[in-house]
Amino acid sequence: MAAEVATSALGGWAAADPDVGGSGSEDEARPSTAAEAAAAQKREERLRKFRELHMKRNEARKLNHQEVVEEDKRLKLPANWEAKKARLEWELKVEEKKKECAARGEDYERVKLLEISAEDAERWERRKKRKNPDLGFSDYAAAQLRKYQRLTRQIKPDLEQYEKLKEQYGEALYPTSDSLLHGTHVPSKEGVDRMVADLEKQIEKREKYSRRRPYNDDADIDYINERNAKFNKKAERFYGKYTAEIKQNLERGTAV
Predict the structure, then answer these.
(1) Is the pTM higher than 0.85?
(2) CB within 8 A of 15, min separation 6: which ones?
(3) Each residue's pLDDT tens digit, 153-170
(4) Largest CA distance in the chain
């Protein structure tokens, strides 16, 4: 009887407590909620990385487009644009330096020389000495250009005659593609004499110049190869005057 009372009491308590029957379903729901939260977090992380990659791609595309535009601009510029730009920047700096020196009452040339080191000055002097050096013959175009530059440096313009011609011809002095110049210009006697004197000077200088030739076609062949030819030339240079009579006797057949 006591057992029945205990059983009924226990059963009543179990029926009265509603949490005892639903604890199993809540334990099953908690892991699924945690998995969904982890999946949502992972998806959010992936979306964030995707957005970052998308922004980097757009930035790279923008930078590439800017670089293409800049490269197109550089290709359309002249070949020596960088040198011209550097030259213009240097000239602007020089002008600013001159203005600063003038404001302080100083001589710009003196200030510039004070800023030049001894090594730079020596290097510039060497560069001036080897300006337009004779590098030997490379081709006929280079030789012609060198000759033209040397002749044009010798020209001394007659400014008085230039002013007279400008007053006489006006705009016709500066010809265009439609100008007809044949037979319109008559050189002065002084100009003709100057041209003749210059040509005579060139002819005289050309006569003094003789090009070295590797061999003489009319000379006697007294060698068997190039090495022997060089040896014979050395021997002739040092002992030719002593052996000239012997060689003449051998050639005449009168040698003793």
Answers:
(1) no
(2) none
(3) 888 888 888 888 888 877
(4) 175
